[in-house]
Amino acid sequence: MTIAPSPVGCPPVACTDCHLRATQRFAPVSEGELAYIEQFRSEILAMPAGATIIPEYKLSTRLFTLYSGWAFRYKSLSDGRRQILNFLAPGDLIGLQEEFADGVTPGVEALTEVNLCVFPRDNLWPLFREYPSLGYDITWLAAREEHWVDDHLVTAGRRNAEERVAMLLMHLYRRGERAGMVQEGSIDFPFTQQHIADALGLSLVHTNKTLRRLRTLGLHRLENGRLWLLDPKALERVADYYERPQRRLPLI
Amino acid sequence: MTIAPSPVGCPPVACTDCHLRATQRFAPVSEGELAYIEQFRSEILAMPAGATIIPEYKLSTRLFTLYSGWAFRYKSLSDGRRQILNFLAPGDLIGLQEEFADGVTPGVEALTEVNLCVFPRDNLWPLFREYPSLGYDITWLAAREEHWVDDHLVTAGRRNAEERVAMLLMHLYRRGERAGMVQEGSIDFPFTQQHIADALGLSLVHTNKTLRRLRTLGLHRLENGRLWLLDPKALERVADYYERPQRRLPLI
DNA sequence: CGGTAGATTGAGAGTCCTCAAGCTCTGTGG
DNA sequence: CCACAGAGCTTGAGGACTCTCAATCTACCG
Question: By C-alpha distance, which of A33, A130, A147 is closest to B101?
């Protein structure tokens, strides 16, 4: 099975040519805002799958916008146990918390090959001052991310294994869908079972067995790195998790 | 044992007389900012323990700053299972996420009697526009809250019962400490074991047994609604959780 | 003095974990 | 062209951790 690659590759030199914004999936910006974003951006960066975008514990001096690919935020305990906090899809802002953190900060890792727009963090306050609307947008993105983490906390804290897996499959599919990744009724699914286990607070083995159970029930199909939701209603019911349509998010 | 009540009671009429700000535990503000905050505020509100500050699922039209007392954010599943997302202490901003949420929003409940400063949410964008520095502060508070939720997700996802309980005792003590609640080496501890269980993703019974185990080990004392950390180092070691000193937060 | 909220304890069951081994697929090098 | 190694997936078995059920106890209140 051959599937065309994601429509967006490397970020263009000018934000006015941004392929991501051209998809119309993000809230519109004024010319002035767009120009400000462009001069705010300092670099364009490509990283391979598995690369560390922000090392754990270490304060980064940069903010990023994920332009293409998947990434994830995580924290580890000292004996190596790892918890994935949330997944990052194109358009997501990376590294904002670090600006305000005093202690241990989460790490961010590229899950697939990624392209990133880089912003110097020192210019965050000037951005608020000179373009309050962009500051407001950044707060919006921060609130949205916390919303995802809230949901994952409910999952890790209160759902059983079957419910957790169903929840995450729904969640990732919907996120992929909003990012325009659906092709032939499925999305590219680069997540390993280890990623899923780390995100859900389950062991790898139990994650595997739970996935099989759901597959046997006919709720989803996971093959050749692609995910189909065969019975979204049933998945929603199992997970007790219903994603609502949402406004177009801002894109910085 | 009688302990003097919290030094701050009901919020004063004028923000210039704010007892919370007078503690010097918050970042300084300019006169202009303070005046803007004061005119932003629409009400003062007192609620009894157990009151619903923001109902789950329902969009509130108001923002709050917790002036005194404890509260918590939570989400429930449809069968009643409840997960506490984080606890709120004096100075915390409440209801920001709702501004940006499209779907299901968490509820907020008063854990003790609380006093609140109320702000109309419609004026949030004007605040960003007219006082970008306050907008920046609000983003800071949002990032700080996400930081707590991140930590709790690691706890629920990857720590065992003993580690979880140790982590939460540390966390709540430190928060109380920063809020100036320490008296005679202990803080007022209004949390029930049900609250702890709901925050940690444990059952009530297992929470009880785990608390007893830690108490038997001499790590803490919990009596008459007060909490002592008898061996903070050991608690940190058990929990693999080390809270760092932090900058003074902004207060809106 | 009964009623209620919260804390405590014991017992048995079940979910989930760890250990261990084998499998599939892909890329590499002889 | 095939052996080999590595990453990821799969499966079984036994045990540990945590849950549910049920009962008791204490403190506080009307």
Answer: A147
What CA–CA distance (Å, rounded) separates B145 from B115?
Answer: 20
Euclidean distance between CA atoms B116 and B63, whole angstroms: 10
- Predicted confidence (pLDDT) at residue B1 exceeds the cutoff of 70: no
Which nucleotide lies closest to A189 by the C1' atom and the CA atom?
D8
Q: Is the CB of A112 under 7 A from strand D?
A: no
* CA–CA dist A142, A7 (Å, integer): 26
Measuring CA to CA, how many Å separate A53 from each of A6, A73, A148, B248?
Answer: 21, 10, 20, 28
Q: Is A80 on the interface with B (CB under 8 A)?
A: no
Q: How many CA atoms lie within 13 A of B109 on its CB side?
A: 15
Q: How far apart are CA B170 and CA B239, in angstroms?
A: 9
pTM for the complete prediction? 0.95
Nearest CA of chain B to the CA of A14: how many Å? 27
Can you tell me the distance from the alpha carbon of A1 to that of A148, in angstroms, rounded to the nearest whole number?
32
Nearest CB neighbour to A144, from listed B100, B143, B156: B100
Cβ neighbours of residue A169 closer than 8 Å, sequence gap 6 or more = A214, A219, A220, A227, A229, A235
The amino acid present at A35, given as its one-letter code, is A
Residue-wise pLDDT for A3-13, tens only, equals: 444 445 678 87
